[in-house]
Design a protein that fits this description.
The chain has helices at 32-43, 69-86, 89-109, 115-132, 140-160, 165-183, 192-196, 206-225, 235-260, 285-288, 303-328, 330-337, 345-349, 352-368, 370-374, 384-400, 412-424, 428-442. By secondary structure, it is mainly alpha-helical. Helix 2 (69-86) packs parallel to helix 4 (115-132) and helix 9 (235-260) crosses helix 12. The protein starts with 31 loop residues before the first helix and ends in a 17-residue tail after the last helix. Mean pLDDT is 80; it is low at 1-25, 273-279 and 443-459.
């Protein structure tokens, strides 16, 4: 796929004994820009109508590199992909060595250098970790996202409104949103100033309008989880207010769907007609891990087709989380069931039966489009988003089951999601080597205690 050339090494001398000797591989006369361009030309679409999530990487190539960590990180990402795409273990190992070199180098570069290049380097670290290792058990990518949040806080939303900061921020908003909903905590990107000020001079497309709503959902689920049944006189009013917020946000999301007019392929790409779930065919974890695959010539699907399906996949998951938030909370359920004049039209418009019916349909939609959306083609976040969507559907099936009035193998939807989740998740034989690397690089960390996803209090 790539000419017989080798990788650049850092401009500053390395410390003795820091890394194992690098094997003599290809790319030797290539620059880091050419290496990254090869990756982008093979994996990013040309002429797509939607914004391409990884397009911000192209803006790094003409940039004068002020820190050594940035070209190392660019090369690590591209060479790691080439190793998996070509099936060359030496390249995979070299990508990891370059990544470790870049992490160490950034610790020296981080003081007194370009905040833009420090931010870009840290985001590349996150992308590399998500592609190479996935999001399931990684200390590293969470540490990097913590650094991204800290850098964004220092910059402030007014500075982030400028390019290429805005492209980078637009990319990481997805990561903030996914992890915020997983932790059921409001994230810093959900704050109004971070949803509005960076985009004051640019129009948002349907994807970014949806992200605004999904980020707001992180605040609502945290609010809902704090509501409990209580004899306190104000408890019912608080539960009713929270329930109103959830239902109103569901309506706003539905309105977004109507206005966005996302075009899906005709009918679900998967039909689960039997009771036996066949192994997923479209996902290439064994070869590519979470990296995007090369764009095939004469592909039957387009970038926009895949991205529209992925956007709806995520939309269904966010809606399903909001519905389950109501059903999982006894205080909210009780409030919804009460015939209270103060509550009025909301109670009449949204019933428990309606929530269960619509939530079941959302889970089925996620299942039927899951393999199509999980494919490696034009993948931008590794398996992170697919894992999030599948786990959401699985939680619904395990907690509430598919429509129990049906007798036609109701478990096959759950089985399909579980089989696909296993396919895209890091396997046990990969995990030990990964854990050893993580502990050596970052030390033992309680990553769930990292404060990156919390809004910074204003003073």
């Amino acid at each position: 796929m790539l000419p017989n050339k080798g990788v650049i090494m850092p401009r500053s001398p390395k410390r003795e004994g820091t890394f194992a000797p690098l094997p003599p591989l290809r790319f030797q006369s290539w620059s880091h820009d050419e290496i990254l361009a090869e990756f982008l030309d093979n994996c990013l679409p040309l002429g797509a109508t939607q914004e391409v999530p990884l397009s911000w990487l192209r803006s790094l190539m003409p940039m004068e590199k002020e820190i050594d960590a940035l070209p190392l990180a660019m090369s690590a990402l591209a060479i790691g992909w080439a190793g998996h795409a070509d099936g060359e273990p030496q390249l995979i190992a070299k990508g990891l060595q370059l990544y470790n070199a870049a992490v160490r180098q950034l610790r020296d570069d981080i003081q007194g250098h370009s905040q833009l290049q420090v931010l870009a380097t840290t985001v590349i670290f996150t992308v590399y970790e998500l592609f190479e290792f996935g999001s399931g058990s990684s200390h590293g990518w969470l540490c990097h996202v913590s650094g991204i949040a800290a850098t964004l806080h220092i910059l402030g939303p007014d500075m982030v409104a400028n390019e290429p900061y805005l492209q980078i921020y637009s990319f990481v908003r997805m990561i903030f949103m996914i992890e915020g909903l997983r932790r059921r905590q409001a994230v810093c990107a959900a704050a109004e100033m971070w949803r509005t000020i960076p985009y004051a001079r640019s129009a948002k497309n349907k994807f970014h309008k949806f992200l605004d709503l999904a980020l707001r959902a992180t605040e609502l689920v945290e609010e809902a989880d704090s509501v409990q049944i209580s004899a306190n006189p104000g408890a019912f009013d608080r539960a009713r207010e929270t329930l109103c917020h959830l239902i109103e946000h569901i309506w706003v999301l539905n309105k977004w769907e109507e206005e966005a007019q996302v075009s899906l392929i005709n009918g679900p790409p998967e039909m689960l007609g039997g009771t036996i779930v066949s192994p997923p065919q479209a996902v290439d974890r064994k070869t590519l891990r979470g990296y995007p695959s090369k764009i095939p010539k004469g592909a039957s699907v387009t970038f926009d087709t895949v991205q529209d399906a992925r956007l709806m996949h995520l939309y269904w998951s966010v809606l399903l989380i909001l519905y389950m938030t109501i059903l999982d909370n006894p205080a909210l359920q009780k409030t919804l069931q009460m015939d209270n004049a103060k509550y009025g039209h909301l109670a009449q418009m949204m019933t428990i039966h309606q929530i269960q019916r619509e939530a079941n349909q959302l889970a089925d939609n996620i299942t039927l489009y899951s393999e199509f959306c999980c494919q490696n083609l034009w993948q931008s976040f590794g398996p992170m988003v697919s894992i999030f969507n599948l786990e959401t559907a699985i939680r619904w099936y395990r907690s509430y089951g598919r429509n129990r009035e049906e007798s036609l193998a109701p478990d096959r939807y759950l089985e399909h999601c579980e089989a696909l989740l296993e396919t895209i998740t890091m396997q046990s034989d990969e995990r030990q080597a990964f854990d050893d690397y993580q502990n050596a690089t970052f030390g033992a960390l309680d990553v769930l205690r990292l404060p990156w996803c919390r809004p910074v209090a204003t003073t």
